[in-house]
Design brief:
heterotrimer; A alpha+beta; B alpha/beta; C alpha/beta; A: alpha+beta; OB fold (Dihydrolipoamide Acetyltransferase, E2P); three-stranded antiparallel sheet; C: alpha/beta; Aspartate Aminotransferase, domain 2; Aspartate Aminotransferase, domain 1; 3 domains; 12 strands; globular
Chain lengths: 127, 435, 490
C-alpha cells in the first residue's frame, strides 16, 4: 500500500479504510524507532475495540508499548504470518506487515487522524 | 574499622580532589536540621573473635533436637558438595546478570536449574525461582488470573499448607477477589465440594500433594475439574516426592509450584528458601520472575541471557507480571547442584527412604495404646498422628531429644515427618520415648 | 586456560549409569508398591542428568570462573550496593542451633534465635527512626508491597478510601508494580529538570485521594532530596503517608533517618546495605519499619520481649492485633537477616556512620575524577552514587554508555548500571561503595580515561576478552529457548 493513501494516529498506527473494514499496522517510522521487534501481543478475533484504546502490545528487547485502535469496531482478523516472521513489520510495514483488521462500527475517529504529510511532519519534529 | 580502606591521609587527599575542606562540607547536602545530632543507639562494636564467642552462646540457647518435624520444611541431607560449590565467592558475591558477558557462570547454572525443574516436574518451562513456597502459590494465582482474565474468584483446597493459604489471602486482599476454600475429608480434598465450588468465574483451583497432612491427592481429578470449568489448575508439590511419585505434568496441571527447600537448602528457621514455579509453554509470557534464555553470541558460541524481560517490573512497571525483582539465585544454585549430584537414581533412593521410614515409624507408633493415624489416605513422608494428649506426647519426645510437629490445634493431631536422615536407631528410640 | 569440556551443559556431560551421592537402600525394605497405590507412583525416575561428584565439581568450578563477583572484582553496579560480604557471616550463619533450626520450633526452644531477631527489629527501628519493624518480607519489592497493604488497611480502618500512589519518574520499577499489586492507581510525576522531585508538580497530584507518596532518598540519581521535609509535610497535610524506598540507605546510616525527614514507612534491602550475599540475584531480605500508629497492621509474627520470672528476658512470637496477615510462609529470610545482624553487631554506631561517610567520599572522589570524560548532569555533589552521562562521547565519537560498559569488562572491572534511570541520557550509574580502596578507584578512572581514547569501532566490538561477547538478545526474545533443547524432545 502506498503510505500516502493512509491515515495515521499520533501513536504511530496507520489505517487503511475500505468500506467498513479498517486494516491497521504500525508506521515505518515507529518500527525503526523500536529497532528490533521481538513480540506482538494480539487481541482475540471478535474482541470489541474503541477508538484511542489499547488493543494489543508491541515489544522490543527492553521496551513494551501499547497498540492503540484508531477506530471503533470488532477485531475481524489478526496477521498470523507475523507470529513466525516479525521482520515483515520492518520489511513491508504498509503491506505484509499489517497487524489487525477491524470491522468498523464507528468511523468518526478516522476523520481526525493525520494524513501522511501531517504525520511525517510530526515525526520530523521529534514527537 | 573492618572492611574500610581509607587512611586518614587518603581521606584528606580525596577531600582535596573533591574540592571540599571537610567531610562535613560534603554532608551538607543533607539539610542541617535533618541530620542526626547523636550517635545511633546501637550495641557497641565487637571484634570477630568476641562476637563469635557470644554467638556460640546464643546458638546454645536454641534447642535443636533430632528432627521429626514437617509442615513445609524438612531436615533432608545436604551433600557436602552443595555447600562447597555454592560457597564459592564467584557465585555468592555476584549480582543479577545484567552484563551477560560477566555472568555466564550464574546464567548457565540458572538455565540448567530451569531445565532440571522441567525434567523433575514434567512441565514445559520453569522460571529461575521465586521467594519461597507460599509466595510461589500466590504468584501462580496471579498468573492464572492474567491468563484467563478471571479476577473475581479462586478456589483453594484446605489441604494446601495453611501458611500458603494465608499468604494468598493477604496477596489478594486489596483486589476484590474471593478466596474459596474447599474442605478436606479424611485427609484429602473433598472432591465433591471442590467441584461445587468451581464455576465459570473461577480463575484457578489450587491443590497440594502430598498435602499439608502428608496425604496424596487425586490431582488428575482436580485438574480435570478445573479444565472443565475453564479454570487453570495449580499444584503445589514436594520436589523430593517426585523421586517416586507421579509428576505434575502427568496430572495435567497448568502451573506447578513448590517449596524447594528440600533440594539442598538448610532449615535456618524458615528462610531463605526456594520458590519453584513451572508451567505449560503457552503461558510463558504470563510468568512472574526471572527467566534465563539460551542464545548465540557474535562469534556463534552458545550462551545465556536474561530472557523475556518485558514481563518484568523494570520495564513494564505497573503492568508487570509481578513486582518481584530479586530471585533466590543462591538457593536455585543449591538445588541445581543437589539435583546434579543426586541424579535420577539418587533422588529415587532419597524418596524411597523417606517413604519406607515414614511408613515404618507410623506402623510402630500405631501400636502404642491411644495413638493412631488420623487419616487412612496414602501418605508419602509425613502423616498426622492422633494422640490423647498432644502436649504430653511432645513433652516425652522432647525429653528424649526429638522434635516433632507442628501440632494441629483443632483436633489433638500432630504432624510427624521422616526424612532419609533418620536412622533406624533414631526411629526406634523415638517410638520408645513416646510409648 | 578455559576448560570448555566441563562447561558443557550438565545434560551433555551426562552418561547413563554414572552416580554422584548415593543413598543405599536396605535389602529387606518394603517395596514402594506395598506402601502406596500403583496409580500415584511414577513409571520412571525423573530425567535428571547422570554425573559423578567430580563431574559436578569441575562443571560448577569452571562455571564460577565465568562470573565477575565482589570477591574477585570491583563491581560498581549503581543502585545495587555491591559491597564486600564478610566471610565470618557465612560461618556464623551455619552454626549448629542457628543454621539447622526448624521454623516450627517452639519459642521456648528458640530463645537465642528470637533474641537475635528481636535485637534486629530494635536496631533497624533505630536506624530508620521508625520504631515498629516487621522482618517478614523476603526482599525489597515485597517490603514495598507489604507496606502498601499496611497503608491500605490503615486508611480502611480510618474509614477513608484513597486510591492513588504517587511516585517520581526516576522510581524503581518495583514501586509502581507493587502499588498495582496492592490495588492502587499509579500516578507518575514527569521527570524534573534538576534531578529533584518537582514540588510544584507534586502538589497538583496531592489531595485527599492520595494514599502514599513513594520516594527513594537519596534518589536514584544519588542526590539527597533537599525538600524532603517540605514534601513530607505536604503529604501529611492531606492525611497521606510517605514511603521511603530504602534501596539507598547505604548513604545515610547514622547521618539522617527516614523517620526524621518525614517518612512514615520504609523498607531495607538487607542484602545491599547490610552485606547479605547477592547470590547472582538473591536471596534478599526486605524488612519494613513504620511509625507507631501503623504497628498494629504489620504482618505477623513479630518477636516480642518480656521480663521472665527469673529476671531474664523471655522472647515470644506474636501477630499484631489488626495485622494484614502473612506475606509468606514462616518467619522471614532469617539467614539473610542474621548476616545483617552480625554486620551491625560488628560495626556499632560509629562504624556504621563511617560506612556511609566513606561510601559518600568514594562516590564523590570518583565523580570528580571522571568529570572530564563522563560528566554528571545533575548535582554538584552526590551521596553514595551518581549517574554520569556518556552523551558527550556519543555525540562526538559515537561511543555509547553500553560500549563503555562492555569494554570495562576487558579491563577487569564490572560495568556500572547502564541506561537507568531513564531521565539521564546515556546513563552510567556508579556506586563504588565504601569497601573499595583509593588505589582501585584510581585504576578504574584510568581505565575509563583510556577507553575514551580508544577507536570507537574497536569499542563497538567489545568486550574482547570475555568467554562470550554481545549475546544475541533479539533472537533470545523472539524465540525464547528456556530449557535445554534435547530435554524438550525427550
Amino acid at each position: 500500500m502506498d503510505p500516502k493513501t493512509l491515515r495515521f494516529s499520533k501513536t504511530h498506527e496507520w489505517v487503511h479504510l475500505n468500506g467498513d473494514i479498517a486494516t491497521v499496522g504500525v508506521s515505518d517510522f515507529a518500527v525503526k524507532e523500536l529497532t528490533d521487534i521481538v513480540h506482538l501481543e494480539f487481541p482475540e478475533v471478535g474482541t470489541s475495540v474503541s477508538a484511542g484504546q489499547p488493543f494489543g502490545e508491541i515489544e522490543s528487547v527492553k521496551s513494551v508499548n501499547d497498540l492503540y485502535s484508531p477506530v471503533a469496531g470488532v477485531i475481524e482478523a489478526v496477521n498470523s504470518d507475523l507470529e513466525d516472521n516479525l521482520a515483515l513489520m520492518s520489511d513491508d510495514p504498509y503491506g505484509a506487515g499489517w497487524v489487525v483488521r477491524i470491522k468498523v462500527s464507528d468511523a468518526s475517529a478516522y476523520e481526525s487522524l493525520l494524513d501522511h504529510a501531517a504525520y511525517e511532519q510530526m515525526c520530523q519534529s521529534g514527537h | 574499622m573492618p572492611y574500610l580502606f581509607a587512611t586518614d591521609e587518603q581521606r584528606r587527599q580525596m577531600l582535596d580532589v573533591i574540592g571540599v575542606s571537610s567531610l562535613e562540607e560534603l554532608l551538607a547536602q543533607v539539610p542541617q536540621e535533618l541530620q542526626l545530632e547523636r550517635p545511633l543507639d546501637l550495641p557497641p562494636a565487637m571484634a570477630e573473635f568476641e562476637l563469635e564467642h557470644e554467638l556460640q552462646a546464643i546458638a546454645k540457647q536454641n534447642k535443636s533436637r533430632t528432627c521429626f518435624m514437617g509442615g513445609g520444611a524438612y531436615d533432608h541431607f545436604i551433600p557436602a558438595v552443595v555447600d562447597e560449590i555454592a560457597g564459592r565467592g564467584e557465585f555468592y558475591t555476584a549480582y543479577t546478570p545484567y552484563q551477560p558477558e560477566a555472568s555466564q557462570g550464574s546464567l548457565q547454572a540458572f538455565f540448567e536449574y530451569q531445565t532440571l525443574i522441567c525434567q523433575l516436574t514434567g512441565m514445559d518451562v520453569s522460571n529461575a525461582s521465586l521467594y519461597e513456597g507460599g509466595t510461589a502459590v500466590s504468584e501462580a494465582v496471579f498468573m492464572a488470573m492474567r491468563v484467563n482474565g478471571r479476577e473475581k474468584k479462586v478456589v483453594l483446597s484446605a489441604g494446601v499448607n495453611p501458611e500458603y493459604r494465608q499468604t494468598v489471602e493477604t496477596y489478594l486482599c486489596e483486589l476484590g477477589c474471593q478466596v474459596v476454600t474447599a474442605p478436606v475429608a479424611n485427609g484429602t480434598t473433598d472432591l465433591g465440594q471442590l467441584e461445587a465450588a468451581i464455576d465459570d468465574q473461577t480463575a484457578c483451583v489450587v491443590v497440594q500433594s502430598p498435602n499439608f497432612f502428608g496425604c496424596i491427592e487425586d490431582v488428575s481429578a482436580v485438574s480435570g475439574m478445573a479444565k472443565a470449568a475453564g479454570a487453570l489448575s495449580v499444584m503445589s508439590f514436594d520436589p523430593i516426592s517426585l523421586g517416586v511419585l507421579k509428576r505434575p505434568g502427568d496430572h495435567g496441571v497448568d502451573i506447578a509450584v513448590a517449596e524447594g527447600q528440600g533440594l539442598g537448602t538448610p532449615l535456618q528457621y524458615g528462610g531463605p528458601y526456594l520458590g519453584i514455579l513451572a508451567c505449560r509453554q503457552q503461558y510463558v509470557r504470563k510468568m512472574p520472575g526471572r527467566l534465563i534464555a539460551q542464545t548465540k553470541d557474535r562469534d556463534g558460541k552458545t550462551c545465556y541471557v536474561l530472557g523475556l524481560q518485558t514481563r518484568e517490573q523494570h520495564i513494564r512497571r505497573d503492568k508487570a507480571t509481578s513486582n518481584i525483582c530479586t530471585n533466590q539465585g543462591l538457593l536455585a544454585l543449591r538445588a541445581t547442584i543437589y539435583l546434579s549430584v543426586l541424579g535420577p537414581a539418587g533422588l529415587k533412593e532419597v524418596a524411597t527412604h523417606c517413604c519406607q521410614r515414614a511408613h515404618d515409624l507410623a506402623a510402630k507408633l500405631c501400636q502404642i495404646p491411644g495413638v493412631s493415624l488420623m487419616y487412612s489416605a496414602p501418605f508419602f513422608k509425613e502423616f498426622v498422628l492422633k494422640v490423647d494428649n498432644v502436649n504430653a506426647f511432645v513433652a516425652k519426645a522432647h525429653a528424649a531429644g526429638f522434635d516433632v510437629g507442628p501440632d494441629l490445634h483443632a483436633d489433638s493431631g500432630i504432624l510427624v515427618a521422616v526424612t532419609e536422615k533418620r536412622t533406624q536407631a533414631e526411629i526406634d528410640a523415638f517410638v520408645a520415648a513416646v510409648s | 586456560m578455559e576448560n570448555t569440556l566441563s562447561t558443557r551443559s550438565l545434560f551433555e556431560m551426562s552418561a547413563p549409569g554414572r552416580r554422584g551421592t548415593q543413598f543405599p537402600l536396605p535389602a529387606d525394605g518394603p517395596a514402594l508398591s506395598d506402601l502406596l497405590p500403583a496409580e500415584v507412583l511414577a513409571e520412571s525416575a525423573p530425567g535428571l542428568p547422570e554425573l559423578t561428584e567430580p563431574d559436578v565439581v569441575r562443571h560448577f568450578v569452571n562455571l564460577s570462573k565465568r562470573n565477575m563477583s565482589v570477591d574477585s572484582h570491583f563491581y560498581p553496579l549503581g543502585s545495587c550496593t555491591m559491597k564486600y560480604n564478610p566471610k565470618r557471616h557465612e560461618r556464623w550463619a551455619k552454626f549448629s542451633g542457628i543454621g539447622d533450626l526448624h521454623p516450627h520450633i517452639r519459642p521456648q526452644d528458640s530463645q537465642g534465635m528470637l533474641r537475635m531477631l528481636y535485637e534486629s527489629q530494635k536496631m533497624l527501628g533505630e536506624i530508620a527512626g521508625l520504631p515498629a519493624v516487621s522482618l517478614q518480607p523476603a526482599a525489597g519489592a515485597q517490603g514495598e508491597f507489604t507496606a502498601l497493604l499496611v497503608a491500605a488497611a490503615y486508611f480502611r480502618d480510618k474509614g477513608e478510601t484513597r486510591k492513588k500512589v504517587v511516585f517520581p519518574a526516576s522510581a524503581h520499577g518495583t514501586n509502581p508494580a507493587s502499588a498495582a499489586l496492592a490495588g492502587f492507581e499509579c500516578v507518575q510525576l514527569d521527570a524534573s529538570q534538576n534531578g529533584f522531585v518537582d514540588v510544584e508538580q507534586l502538589a497538583k497530584h496531592v489531595d485527599t485521594d492520595t494514599a502514599v507518596f513513594m520516594i527513594t532518598n537519596p534518589n536514584t540519581l544519588g542526590l539527597f532530596e533537599k525538600d524532603i521535609h517540605r514534601i513530607s509535610q505536604m503529604l501529611h497535610d492531606v492525611g497521606a503517608l510517605v514511603y521511603i524506598d530504602g534501596a539507598n540507605m547505604n548513604a545515610v546510616l547514622g547521618i539522617t533517618r527516614p523517620g526524621d525527614f518525614g517518612g512514615d514507612m520504609m523498607h531495607y534491602n538487607v542484602h545491599k546495605t547490610f552485606t547479605g550475599p547477592h547470590g547472582a540475584g538473591g536471596p534478599g531480605a526486605g524488612p519494613i519499619a513504620v511509625r507507631d500508629f501503623l504497628a498494629d497492621y504489620l504482618p505477623g509474627p513479630i518477636v516480642t520481649k518480656a521480663d521472665g520470672e527469673d529476671g531474664n528476658p523471655v522472647y515470644d512470637l506474636a501477630t499484631p492485633s489488626k495485622s494484614i496477615g502473612r506475606v509468606r510462609s514462616f518467619f522471614g529470610n532469617v539467614g539473610i537477616l542474621l548476616r545483617g545482624y552480625f554486620y551491625l553487631r560488628t560495626l556499632g554506631a560509629h562504624g556504621l556512620r563511617r560506612v556511609s561517610e566513606d561510601a559518600i567520599l568514594n562516590a564523590n572522589y570518583l565523580k570528580e575524577r571522571l568529570r572530564d570524560v563522563l560528566p554528571v548532569p545533575n548535582g554538584e555533589r552526590c551521596m553514595h552514587e551518581f549517574v554520569a552521562s556518556a552523551k558527550q562521547l556519543k555525540d562526538e565519537r559515537g561511543v555509547t554508555a553500553m560500549d563503555i560498559a562492555k569494554r570495562l569488562l576487558d579491563y577487569g572491572f564490572h560495568a556500572p548500571t547502564v541506561y537507568f534511570p531513564l531521565v539521564v541520557a546515556e546513563a552510567l550509574m556508579m556506586e563504588p561503595t565504601e569497601t573499595e580502596s583509593l588505589e582501585t578507584l584510581d585504576a578504574f578512572v584510568e581505565a575509563i580515561q583510556a577507553i575514551a581514547k580508544e577507536d570507537p569501532e574497536f569499542l563497538k566490538e567489545a568486550p574482547h576478552t570475555t568467554p562470550v561477547r554481545r549475546p544475541d538478545e533479539v533472537a533470545a526474545a523472539r524465540k525464547p529457548v528456556l530449557c535445554w533443547d534435547a530435554c524438550l524432545d525427550g
